[in-house]
Amino acid sequence: MANITKKVSWSSRGDDPAQGEGTPLLNGATEAARCTTRQFSGGNIFRIGRMSTVDLEEETNTEEDSVLSRPKEIPHNEKLLSLKYESLDYDNSENQLFLEEERRMSYMGFRCLEISRWVVCGLIGFLTGLIACFIDIVVENLAGVKYQVVKQNIEKFTEVGGLSISLILWAVLNSVFVMMGSVMVAFFEPIAAGSGIPQIKCYLNGVKIPRVVRLKTLVVKVFGVICSVAGGLAVGKEGPMIHSGAVVAAGVSQGRSTSLKKDFKIFEYFRRDTEKRDFVSAGAAAGVSAAFGAPVGGVLFSLEEGASFWNQMLTWRIFFASMMSTFTLNFFLSIYHGKTGDLSNPGLINFGRFESDSVEYNLYEIPIFIVMGALGGVLGALFNVLNYWLTIFRIRYVHRPCLQVMEAMLVAAVTATVSFAMIYFSNDCQPLGEDQAEEYPLQLFCADGEYNSMASAFFNTPERSVRSLFHNPPGSYNPLTLGVFTLSYFFLACWTYGLTVSAGVFIPSMLIGAAWGRLFGILLSTISSSTATWPDPGKYALIGAAAQLGGIVRMTLSLTVIMVEATGNVTYGLPIMLVLMTAKIVGDYFIEGLYDVHIKLQSVPFLHWEAPATSHSLTAREVMSSPVTSFNRIEKVGTIVDILSNTTTNHNGFPVVNELIDHNELGKICGLILRSQLIVLLKHKVFVERARSRLNQRKLQLKDFRDAYPRFPPIQSIHVSQDERECMMDLTEFMNPTPYTVPQETSLPRVFKLFRALGLRHLVVVDNENRVVGLVTRKDLARYHLGKHGLEEMQLAQT
């Protein structure tokens, strides 16, 4: 394999106006870049295309100008890494201020901190459970009213004719709900679109996604998910619950709201990325727990998605938050349902308990389950491929908010029309027995005492449809009904994921899988002897649901436990695990999981568990960024301001070296200082001259840095006079004197492991004499990936 040549540095044609504040959302992408990829298998280096940035946020005076400035098509290439995403500082800066604070703290102080961590986790669980309860109750009532109105209308017009009026009513109701949710997302907070799981995955991976854990995002998310589920879209409310839990955690743990400009002066010690990220992982777990009634599944979800920073005490706290979340939800739902104190109804979705004796499985069914897993993997891969191309189409053409709202309304109307057509043309009538759990049975053209079976799948919220597919007795569904339903719902769900609405993909995936799984069970029972009872359709519906969900999202460990906990039967642990493993292996052969596909489409520098397999030949010298902008221990204020104001570089970490006469020569490393720290120092005017003349009344403390976190002011907002530019600043007290360093001959996998495991933001590369030769950041490592032609390097673009 040819050595990888020096990377090309990119800069955009114009300055990026709001560094890092662009919308990292797929269908709300504000800028994009076009560029071809270099591939390094046979030493071919292809021509690198000129990068173009398109700013869609420009304010224009006349309508004509706006038409001219808004392109019809935004070029997009997923083989790029965006420079607008920053890393989180998971590594503590152990400067003199930090060490002094640690020394001042007593044993009791540390104990109180530990107690307050437990209190925060309890609060996170409680609030996440309350939000889940609110969403559940509002969706149930809104959907109930909607289906009741449409049902009465259909019954009225079935007798007198004119069912088209019922169809129009259904489509209009759906579109109105979806329009409200979509307008909120598209115009107020685009980051709240989708399930939010890809964004939370990135956050736990250590990427700072702008606006992802803001209060405004939470409000829009909750409102949006209520509207999209009540609007009858092929979506679930479980994914957004995970995002909501993460936002709650980020807010509660800081003891203040930057959006509301309100500071409660509590939990000030937790105002840094190290603590915040731990709490966000607890919030995500609490969200899973509230959504599925699966506290252990929640802990494992956080472990599976962000386990580079895990320890035993954190596991305990996250489990506590998850348990609190489920308990809170159960308690308030029991009050709502008039059974106060009855806590046996876990989760937003309750699949109902699978009794062991009624649906037992045998050894000879294991191969059948594995085949279903493979089928789930293939169907999941097909879903992801279709959604991938659809998302690229959306990025290119459906990038204006009004177009996004119109598309969401179109999907809502089409969903209602398809549902109505399926119910109308279906002649699958089933007797309305005592054990039927149908909420809104539609008679339509069936005889008295019978209901339309297709309506129980379409004319319902997706959660209820899944439950009826799991638990309705054999013979409740016609094979043709299930086949047609699977096909139509598959394409509807694929079209719906990625719309500008808050919506999850868990339940639609399970519904598709439960439908074809039940169909599989019915076909097995027709092939086997008529006396055999083993091919119970409900059992195969459960296995099909697991296979389809595993094929789409590719989670294994946490999904197994979530499914086991949600069905309340641990005996299905083995078949569900085998099915999910098979679905993942088969699906990964074709394309990545849905969340990974969307992360890649957003050009996020996401670090996987391991460095690419064939990257041992690369060394730190070849991947690092150089030359490095360094500061002296005592640096001139004017130099610092100029470097921070330089928009073409926009660095966030600067090695501090011993005195340099010539800035071009290499200096020995003394420490590392961050842009955010320098901005706080400039804001408080911590200059050597002021200290000498005693103008500085008090010494700067860590509290000053925590108060500015997380929205540090931009350098442009800090006024430095001409006289002050001549002053000097001593960085010794504020820099981290012990940054992580690696020799320049270190192999890429070794650098990767150190960077990923410690959650670093900057890794300094030094030569034999400890002189700074380069700096490794997240983007330098995320650029390399294993493609079809060997090791490939992505390009960096200021998008």
Strand tally is: 19
CATH class category of one domain: Alpha Beta
Q: Regions with pLDDT < 50 over 5+ consecutive residues? A: 1-71
Mean pLDDT, as a whole number? 81
The computed structural class is mainly alpha
Protein name: Chloride channel protein
Organism: Aldrovandia affinis
GO molecular function, one term: chloride channel activity
GO cellular component, one term: lysosomal membrane
Task: Give a verbal description of the structure.
The protein is mainly α and 799 residues long. Among the domains are: 2-78 and 617-797, CBS-domain, CATH 3.10.580.10; 113-338, Clc chloride channel (Orthogonal Bundle). The protein contains 28 helices and 19 strands. Strands 1-18-17 form a three-stranded antiparallel β-sheet. Strands 9-11-12 form a three-stranded mixed β-sheet. A three-stranded mixed β-sheet has the order 14-15-16. Strand 14 (741-743), helix 27 (748-758) and strand 15 form a beta-alpha-beta unit. Pfam families: CBS, Voltage_CLC. The chain crosses the membrane at residues 118-139, 167-188, 218-236, 279-302, 314-336, 366-390, 402-425, 489-519, 540-564, 570-591. It is found in: Membrane.
What are the defining features of this structure?
single chain, 799 residues, mainly alpha, CBS-domain, Clc chloride channel, three-stranded antiparallel β-sheet, three-stranded mixed β-sheet, 28 helices, 8% strand, elongated, disordered N terminus
